[in-house]
Amino acid sequence: MTTNKIRIHLADDHQVLIDGLTNLLQTVPNFEVVGNSLNGTTVYDDVLQNDADILVLDISMPEKDGIKVLQEFHRNNSLCKVIILSSYEELKIIKEVMKLGAKGYLTKKCAGENIIEAIEAVYQDQEYFSDAVREKIFNTFAHSNPKLNKNIYIENPILSPREVEIITLISLEYSGKEISERLFISTNTVETHRKNIMRKLQTKNTIGLVKYALKNNLINP
Question: Which residues are annotated with the PTM 4-aspartylphosphate (predicted)?
Fold first, then answer.
């Protein structure tokens, strides 16, 4: 019985990086690198032609940067899921690309360690952020919340890292809109996470979520 491979397209203006990532990804049996782009102007058409599931996209691309490429994918409601792979760690850029629909964000310095895990997660319609990026996002609300436990990113056997963030913010009385703005995701995505959390924890209301957050030291009483 054959399984469909995850089809991956790489877009970066450095051939050396593309070659390195290709060699790494080809070691994964269910991955297939179906193409690459060295120029931002060709990325959308290249992905459309090779029907990639995942696009790994750099922001610094010649002629058309990664932001504009992402806008093109967003404008055309592309089904290809995008992971940003960039040297930039500025919160403004992270926020912009997530609002445009990017499902993951990695810094190039950790690409070799995280790219395989990121592709697998994003293909399963999850979000994925490298540790440095997650720290940037975390710091946007940490200073204004004295009840927030700084160990928010402790490994949780039931919830994913993103779900831990969501339940923590819910417990701190953030609204769905406020959560979406702080985590740079849509309100629909917040609601989907909330429903999944309640299903996993077998609770029917917010009180149950708060109790879980307190019990697991996600927030301080």
Answer: 58
